Amino acid sequence: MLRLLASVLASLFFVLGAAHAQDGSGAPSGTTGQRTSVDLLLDVIEDDAARAELVERLRGADAVPPDAPGDVIVESLSDGAAPPEDASFGRRIALVTQQAAEDVVDWGMQFWGQLTRAPEVFGGLSGGEAGVLAEALKDLALVIAGTVVVFFALRWLGKSLYASMSASARDGGVARMVVLFTTSAVIDAVIVVLAWGAGYVLATLALGEIGQIGIRQTLYLNAFLLVEMAKVAVRLVLSPSATSLRPLPIGDRAASYLSSRINLIVGVVGYGQLLVVPIINSNVSFAAGRAVSALIAVAVLGFAIWLVLRNRRSVTHWLLGDDAGPRVAAPEGTADPASVRGRRARGALAYLARHWHWPALAYLLALFVIVMLRPGDAVFQTFLASGQVLVVGLLGFAASGFISRAMVRGVSLPSRVSDRVPLLQGRLNAFVPRMLFVLRLVIFAGVVLLALNAIGLIDLRAAMISQFGLRLTGMILSVSLVLLVSFGLWLALTSWVDYRLNPGFGSVATARERTLLTLLRNAATIALVIITLMFVLAEIGLDIAPLLASAGVLGLAIGFGAQKMVQDIITGIFIQFENAMNVGDVVTVSGVTGTVERLTIRSVSLRDLHGVFHIIPFSSVDMVSNYVKDYGYFVCDMAVAYREDVDEAKQAMLDAFAELKGDPDQADGILDELEWFGVNSFGDSAVMLRARIKCVPGRQWGIGRAYNGVLKTVFDARNIEIPFPHQTIYFGETKDGRTQSVKVAMETPGAAA
């Protein structure tokens, strides 16, 4: 079908061309208008010869075999066109790879040609640039001297202030350190602005005519402001003179070393591109300015490569958190990063730490190639982008350092808050490190994105204002806000429950209140988790209506399939409403007696006298026996011999109870007088006397044991027998009353055997 269509189009265009040629030859000489394709088609239809020729061509196209090569028709139409869609897959792949290889070779040849011509940029140097710079420095000497003197004088005055702020940050918390860190940055920036302003005042009032300033002075002062502000950012991160305000986990010598080298690079690039190059451009030539710019860039890149190679091992040890290793340059030997990070790098991170210098060298060599191929303004733009990457990385390290310190120090609440809510600080210290870890990941991602945007690999602003970017950022902010609000509600709820259960403040919670508050906390936590999950899914963009419907169906299925669990929950609810037992009660449930340690909506957990822990589902509970409900009784069944007088034994028991009440350790647990019930039963060897003592719930067992001890002492003192089991032996007798004789042999002590 495609071949037929192509043939028809070819024939049609051929006929139209012939008709147009005939029309052009037969047209009057005065005809100058152009005819449309419709007019040409009408001419073909009206002309019998042209129409017959078109019909013959169409019949010939219909006779083309279906397996004829498709590229024959394409080549007849136009040479060099793209391969048709019905060409073989291998042919299409071959054509694409052929074109790609040719493009790569062409690009490589162009690149090599530009690289071989790169040294020509230095041909713009005429040799007179040094004299021009010397002359310019003579004109700028007073402005430079005045600005530098004011700047260093203010910096000298600020050093004592930095030292005091560092000492204050060392003794304070993270919040104070952040405030002092920001204050030191503002003071440093104000010093630069004051020195810059003093230079402008000196240039406009003391040099030349009052109120006028030369272009060279303006160039220098603007370069001074930008360069020194960049150095402020470097000092802000490294803090060479304020140890406690330094966010990076490095020592004083390392901070001083890095600060001096980075400031040197910033100064050379900044003053070179903002002051030296414009002076050379205006006084020598633009070619000389480009050459000077390239020369500055090459010198700076060479210095940076030397720094990377010299300090590669020390930086590797710092990244790995390893103190044991060779110390090559000044940065090593003073840092103690292991104490801050608390662990070594592992796996891919360790490999990257050991070979970090290769990506750094590759980046610097790429900058070198860019400088050689695109001298001039491109050099400054490249270094500006690299400076932005460096600043973003340092700020990311600074923020990460602050977060690391916060994670190490933890959250410390005031004593008045900790006393009221003792578990709040532990919960915060369990949550805050995780939140800070996520924040560190966000900072790392932000640093990477800003660095890629600085070097031009991505357009972060366009991505942020795009529909997808706005939706993504809105979703992230919404989900973060939902999670924070949910955590705040959960923290407030649990803190309120802890405060109500704290016996040191307010009214002491009863056992029922403790049980209900614990259940409330658990149920509210589950409900809050479910609601938060629904909100998060809705913010992500998922339709939660089908989820809710599915949850309803699933709940119905679970209700039918887990009837035992449903029975557990329903029975547990009624047990809680009836206040049958609470945490701390001694109960008998399903034949198990023990202390209630845990109550949920589904089961009760008991620990018996032997320490065995029992979990009993409420569906198996048919009766609850609570031994500590309101009050308890100790029932005393006292056995006395048949020969003893009951009234005497009764009086002894009353006297023993009076002695027990005199014991201060037991008196506060006795709620009423001894209840005497009298003779309860007649045993095989004793008469059972029963009495009862009403006690504070839970104290009846201890009071009973104490009463038994006193009662034993009183009975012994009054010679009242507490009998042990007696047994009468009967040998039987004959009808005439005779019994069987028993021979008893007596041994006298000391007799011979």
Automatic annotation (TrEMBL):
Topological category with respect to the lipid bilayer: Multi-pass membrane protein
Localisation: Cell membrane
One Pfam family recorded for the sequence: MS_channel_2nd
Domain Moderate conductance mechanosensitive channel YbiO-like transmembrane helix: 385-462
Residues covered by the Mechanosensitive ion channel MscS domain: 565-628
Keyword Transmembrane helix in annotation: yes
Annotated TM spans: 140-157, 178-199, 219-238, 258-280, 286-309, 356-373, 379-403, 437-455, 475-497, 518-538, 544-562
Key words, A-Z: Cell membrane, Membrane, Signal, Transmembrane, Transmembrane helix
Presence of the UniProt keyword Ribonucleoprotein in the record: no
Matches recorded under Gene3D superfamilies: 1.10.287.1260, 2.30.30.60, 3.30.70.100
Signal peptide: 1-21
Domain Mechanosensitive ion channel transmembrane helices 2/3: 525-563
Stated family: Belongs to the MscS (TC 1.A.23) family.
Name of the protein in its database record: Mechanosensitive ion channel domain-containing protein
